[in-house]
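REQUEST FORM: STRUCTURE PREDICTION
Request ID: SP-0412
Submitted by: Lab K.M.
Chain count: 1
Length (residues): 482
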Amino acid sequence: MAGLVAGVDCSTQSTKVLVVDPDDGRVLGTGRAEHVVTGERGARETDPRVWWSALGTALAATGRAADIRAIAVGGQQHGLVALDRRGEPLRPSMLWNDTRSGPQARALLDALGEDFWADRIGLRPVASFTVTKWVWLRENEPEVAKATAAIRLPHDYVTQRLTGDGVTDRGDASGTGWWSGTSGAYETAVLEHPIVALEQEVLPRVLGPVETAGEVDDAVAAELGLGNGVVVGPGTGDNAAAALGLGLDAGQPVVSLGTSGTAYAVSGRQAHDRTGTVAGFADATGRFLPLAATLNCTLAVDRVASLLGLDRDDVEPSGEVVFLPYFDGERTPNLPRASGTLLGLRHETRPQEVLMAAYEGAALSLLDAIEAIDGQSDGIGPDVPLILIGGGARGATWREVFARLSGRPLLIPDAEELVALGAAVQATAVLRGEDPVAVARRWATQVGQRHDPVVRDDARLATIRAVREAVAAEPALSEGNR
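STATUS: Completed
RESULT:
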């Protein structure tokens, strides 16, 4: 079968490729290749050439490269790729979870003020965002910064290797800190500030949601086993790609349960949250994607299970136990120096109760994130199903906890690898000139398991929130021992 499309997920740890029938969304080929991430003491880096090599390996593994007629790349957000005049990386990419630029984030916030960042950019600078990494590079590796002729995000780099052109999309651009979702343009007040000092010509051209990035270069096509004339979509960031893969309507809440957790919903208006809880990202359809993230999700709960010697679903009702599993600090709520906190133990407390309490503590942070998004968006109806995605969504206990603490119906889509699937949706839309949301709906990507709502456990919610407020108010607990 010819005329297929490919969606790429260039994530932190691996590159995944889905080859898809554009008519009905059937996945006809898959491939995967791992990445190497290096660094310690806050550093997290990958040589961008690893992503390119991984794309070739993953495409070959699908066995369908020659049948592909369009391709798009979804990728990890925020990473800083510094290129020389030949388009070669000057150093490994600083990844989204590289935290060395924390002081630079604070300096940027002080330099331009909370109101500017919330109103003009739609986010509050934190170490994740690209602009903070660029300021770190200027301060710590000035010769590299001086030699930088182009700055790209991870998905931009892969797209540029495909076509030879430097482009990005509004979804990924909105996570840099120097592109404004309000104006739809690069923000000169950021670029021209002395601590940033960046020429706009160094940055990629921002494409519209279904604007083509070009065609795969003939020599590159031969290298990757593709045919000639393969159309390339603009690509986007990973969360926007997953939202695109689901074909979300405005106001449909999504929680992604992975190592960390994210909560988001599509909205017709941008978020302007001065607290920084909700990032005012753009999406890949021309709308917006207000998003909040937590640091402690499935990995933290699995760590508790391991410490207790339990299987992850070996749980019992938590009783009086409250566990805030903030092993890495926490971002929502904003307790970056907190540690795990366990209260309510009795002689008769069983390990299974403690594990259940860890699930509840992690889930509450994401449910509070949904409430924050509700106030920074077009609104989320009280009876709208909560869509659970990511690895944790397959877990029986995660589902039970979210049903009980949210009081909402749940939807767990059958579709997997939603970032790559969303990229394939975009590739189809660009190839055929279709609305990408219409493509996702034709593919029925929201088909899955539905769970009826249960009565929300308000008493349990109140107990966990009370403990969390006490922890936040007590420096010895909220700041750990660091």
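NOTES: The chain has a mean pLDDT of 94.
Reviewed by: T.R.
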